[in-house]
Structure formats: C-alpha cells, structure tokens
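ok so i was messing around last nite and threw this chain in just to see what happens. nothing serious, just curious
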Amino acid sequence: LLLHGSGDRAIDVEFGAGRTRQKLSKPFEGLLAQLEHLLARAKGESLRQRLKALQNRRPCARCGGARLRPEMLAVTLVLPTGEEFNIHDLCALTIGKAAEVIGRLGLTGKEEAIAGEVIEEIARRLAFLREVGLDYLTLDRESGTLSGGEAQRIRLATQIGSGLAGVLYVLDEPSIGLHQRDNERLIATLKRLRDLGNSVLVVEHDHDTIAAADHIIDIGPGAGPLGGQIVAQGTLTEVAAAPQSLTGRYLSDQLRIRVPTKRNHPLTPRALVAGPSEGWLSVTGARENNLQNIDAHFPLGCFVCVTGVSGSGKSTLVNDILRAALARDLYRAKETPGAHGAILGAGQLHRLVVVDQSPIGRTPRSNPATYTGAFGPIRELFSQVPAARVRGYDAGRFSFNVKGGRCEHCEGDGKLKVEMHFLADVYVTCDTCQGRRYNRETLEITYKGKNIADVLGMTVDEALSFFRAVPKVADKLATMQEVGLGYLTLGQAASTLSGGEAQRIKLSTELSKRGGSKTLYILDEPTTGLHVSDVDTLLQVLMKLRNAGNTLIVIEHNMDVIKCADWILDLGPDGGGKGGRIVAEGTPESVCAVETSHTGQYLRRLLGL
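result:
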C-alpha cells in the first residue's frame, strides 16, 4: 500500500496530534508513483541523479527484453538441423556463434536467389568483426557498455568492410583492452588496411604495434615542457639505435622493466583454501554474464593481476561483483552486485579504493593542487604573510571558489565558457584577469616574490623546490613527483589531463596518506596511455602501496605488469561463452606452465622459460 498505492480505493489517513489531529479519506497513489512524477518533472541534474540512484534496470515483464511484439518474434530462421532462431534469438548470439549459424543456413536454389546477397553481406560484416577480435560480443550488446577499445575496433571493422583506398586512418591507442593474442589480429587488420592503399597513423605505446610499423616517429625527450620535439624517426632499427630516444632504448633492450627479485606470498597456501581463510578474499559462485559459477580466491597483502583474453569475464568478476559487493558492505552503496554466492574474508579489509582513469574534475576549477590537498596549506601560508595579516586576509581570500579574492568576471575559473549549440563547449581566457583567476588586491600579496597565481603556474618540480621548507605542501608534491607527474602545473585544468595522468594523481593522493594498511585497491588497466618508462614508475608506486600492507587487484593485459605480480588469476580460455572459467592461478612462473592459458604462453616467452 505504501509503495504501490491503493488504486481507486479510498484509505483513511490521520496526521497531526492533539487539537491539530486531522483525518482524511482519499485514494493514495503510492511512493513509487510519486517518485516517478518527481523524476519526470525534475529539472536539476543533481535531483535527477539522486532519483536515478534509486532505480535498477530490469528486463521488460511483457517481452522479456526482446523489445518486439509476439508477431515479429514469430518469424524464424530454420536450420537444416531443425534449430529455430527468431530475430531476438539471433541477436542474442555472440558474433562468432552468429557467423556459424549464418554459415549453416543451407539455402535452396530459390531461397539462394532471394536471400543470397543479404546472407553474404551479413557473413562479410561478421567476419570483419571477428578479424578485429570481437567475436565474443553479442550482437545486441548495448553501445554504452562497450569499452573505448571495443567501440574503436567496431568502427575499424566498418572501415575494412567499406574497402576504400587512398584514405588516411588515424587511431589513438587501438590496443586498449586487448590481450596479446587479440593484439596480433588487430595488427594484421591494420596491415590489411595499409595493403588496400591507405595510410594508417597510429598513436601507440604497445611494443608489438610499434615493432610492426613501417615508419616510427618518437616525440620527447620528456613530458610536458620537457617534450614536444621529434627525437627520432625511421624504421624500428633506426629508432632503436637513436641514443636520445627513450622509446628506442626500451626497443633495443638497453632499458627494461625488471622482474622483482622477491614476491609476496599468501599467508595460507592456496591448496588449503576451501572456505573462509585468513589472508584470502574469496568470491564464491560467481555467475554474472559469462562467468561459469566459479570460486575466485585473492591473496591479501599481495599484488594480484586478473588476466585473460578480451571478454573472458575479468571486469565482470572484479568490478561488477567484487567491487560492487564490497562497496555495498563497507559503505552501504546502492549498486546491486552481479550474481554470486558470497564474499568471504571481507572482514579483514578496512577500506576499498577504486583507482580508475575517470577525470578528477570536469571544469577548469578542478586541478592537481586542489585534488591532492596541497592547495589548502598553500592558501594558509599566503594568509600568514605580514601584508595579508595587515589587510585581514584569511585563507578563503586565496580560494577561487568563494567571493572576495577571486576575479568575479570569470568567477575564479580563469576561463569563460562559451556554449556552442550542437558542438562541444569552448573555453576562452578571461579578458579581465588574463587567466590569473584573482583580482588585483589578492595578487599584490606575495610569498618569496611569488603571488598565488604564479604558484598555480609552477610545475610540480618547481613548486617542490619552492616549498621545500613547508612540509605540509612538500610532502604532497613529492608524491606527485614520485608517480612521474613532475611536469604538470599545479593549476592545470582537470579537463586537460589524460586518463593516465588523472589515475596517477589519485595514486599520489593515496601515497601521501600517513599509515593505513588493510586497504584493497582495485585498478582496471592502469597502463592505458602510459609509455614503458611510465609503466615502470607506476609499478614502483603500486609496490609501495603493497609493501605498506595493502592488497592490489589489477585487471591488466600488459605483460610487463603481469610478470611483476605476486599472484595471477587467469580467466578464459577464450571470450564470451567460451570464457568465464579460471584457467590458471598462482605465481607468474606457475601460470607459465599451464598449456591452456594464453597469458601463460606469452608470459613464458617474456620470462624466457
């Protein structure tokens, strides 16, 4: 009655107390209907998001998720074996399975004349999708659930099918989300585009893709202000021989990521883990999406890599089940975890931190200094300057989020947003403060000859030297330098940071926190967008977090990261319906010995076993 209402039936409602007590008799529409009406009328985005947090997606009760009326679903394709498929059944198949079904239609002469060309076109398009390693996706997969790499490869398959020549194709890291096995198929696809008479320009960090290129352009030598120059170009041999090229030194094996001399071992041997065990975090009966009712065990206090070919169930296990269940148990999050039996051993964890590549902010107001907490002590420092004390300025005067010290024309953004109808918004520099965010009076206050705008314009390296005597600031800046972000300016707008930079800022914030162990860190492909030298830096940061007594669970395809893990959980053996099982688990060396593990095969070559 409370949730769904009374329909047309009037109900008695009493409210108030004493002399104000009233009684009302009328139909009640129910709380759910009231929330529906509130959502329909909501204008503010924050209210809409709060209401949407109370909703769950469920299949339509009438069509069961098929989207079509029964009359449309009554039309079927019948195979010679007697199997029948309506359009919903066919689209629910993976691309690989659908290609098999189309290939087994067995059309007769008349049927061939009617539908032959259509069937041939469908088969060709499915073949292109398989070529780029997407045979594990179902045809009805919602585009919003695709990763960036998957969406990019679907567009690539479309271009292969067009058969055009004389076209320039530009791809930005097409290897994102790809296992080494699938990466080989992608490289073959790019070569096929080239052989058709096209030019293929690829921005990439992957070693195999670089090695397969006809011509390499290496930009550097460093990042940020230290980069922007072409340090080497030519064939693989020529770039590898260039002494000033950092990429070349990794290609020629002068530099490499070393295998750790010592790995952390689980408290309890894996063979003894059956139920709840000290030192282990377990997911039992995982059966969401393509997971085959598996029990997955993660050793605590270790650096754990979850590996497997694309579509094998890694993200489903770690993000959809483990992360969502722990967030619900530890923080009362409302997200519903994927189907599973139980999470065992969660009581041994004090905190869950998800370090992803989402932006640290979406406006110019967000920047590395504010996110890491370094800006608070800097503002306090400026408020203690004698000139500021004489004028009665407090720390709020040096904030660009409150009125007083900021430029009111741009409201402290330093930029003005120009809304472009049908196009992305454009930001232009404020012509009043010239991008300095503050008014004249605030900029008159200086510390060691620098005002607050000058400080925000410093790189992390410069600011660390400038604030060396201020531990509250220096400690936070030192951790940013430690994760390889010394080239970023303190006031750089968050919207201009790459995903890898945003992720490393989050890691530096975690590193700067004093004490605190028994935290679980979950990272999903943290090497996306990172050069090999950045991967090396990232690994050192992850090892520091692990050495402090924390647990790291990392979904990864990068073999340099996988070889450094303490423990590997390899899913597969393939993607889609052929995946969802645990193929191998253990140390990298033990996974190498498992013949059915694709990860083990590539790892064996890398470790020389």
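not much to say yet. The first helix runs from residue 31 to 41.
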